[in-house]
Amino acid sequence: MPEKSGFDPLTLPESNATSYPEAYCAANQQRWNRRLGNHANLTNFGVNLTRIVPGGQSSCRHAHTRQDEFIYVLQGDVELETDAGVERLSAGMCAGFAAGTGNAHRFVNRSAADVLLLVVGDRTAGDAVSYPDVDMHGHMEPDGKFVFSHKDGTPY
Question: What is the C-alpha separation between 64 and 131, in angstroms, rounded?
Fold first, then answer.
């Protein structure tokens, strides 16, 4: 008999861990991820259920060179900050960021209630990430993990 594929995402553990350098960790620990794609053993793309508490952000504003991202707002009101400015999104709205466009983005919760996002992104090898607002650059290692350096290439 085949193993069941369905699961309740809210039963998975949440983590606010980040691989960002110490200088940027605290600002990114007010968001919590449930790694749905990992739990389902997906290898080509990741799926996260991301909860951002009031005052928190999804990440530092960033843009990927090789990986697409798609975000669907499940609950709450959130500010999307991009190169074009700030846009308010509410439950039922979505946003997408094509790889290589350079359009840096992040989500900030300036409301009084938690925000819940469904975040989908591919896992294309060789990705690099630029961060226009902070002194950080990321690149993906062959094992799929990101390594961060200063913009001048000096390691953290």
Answer: 9
Dump pLDDT digits (tens) for 60-103: 999 999 999 999 999 999 999 999 999 999 999 999 999 999 99
From CA 95, how far away is CA 119, in angstroms rounded?
A: 10
Domain of 65 in residue numbering reads as 18-124
Do residues 84 and 102 lie in contact, with contact meaning Cβ atoms separated by under 8 Å?
A: no
Domain assignment present for 95: yes
Strand partners, 42: none
**pLDDT tens readout for residues 9-33:** 999 999 999 999 999 999 899 999 9
d(CA 1, CA 88): 47
CA–CA dist 149, 12 (Å, integer): 32
H-run or E-run covering 79: strand 77-82
| Count of Cβ atoms closer than 10 Å to residue 109 Cβ | 23
Q: What is the CATH number of the domain that holds 82?
A: 2.60.120.10
3-state secondary structure of 128: strand
